[in-house]
Specification:
There is one protein chain. By secondary structure, the chain is an alpha/beta fold. The chain has one domain (3-63): Rossmann fold (3-Layer(aba) Sandwich), CATH 3.40.50.2000. It has helices spanning 12-28, 40-47, and strands spanning 3-7, 33-39, 54-58. It has a 3-stranded parallel beta sheet. Strand 2, helix 2 (40-47) and strand 3 form a beta-alpha-beta unit.
């Protein structure tokens, strides 16, 4: 079985623009397990997308440096 991990942590617009690539991947590999890593703010929209096997929420607040 094929496994894919989509990592799109940034803005909601970027997540939306990645959805066609996800759909093409799902169509090409219907039996694959597809997981998606996203920041918490993108989790709700991905819950509405059929075909994502697992949504992984990355808490990135601590990743950024204070400037």
């Amino acid at each position: 079985m094929d496994n894919f991990l989509i990592i799109r942590l940034s803005s909601l617009g970027d997540i939306i623009h990645t959805l066609p690539a996800f759909s093409a991947l799902r169509k090409s590999f219907p039996e694959a397990k597809i997981s998606w890593v996203v920041e918490d703010k993108g989790h709700d929209i991905l819950d509405l997308v059929p075909g994502i096997d697992k949504i992984i929420v990355a808490h990135t607040e601590g990743w950024r440096l204070n400037r």
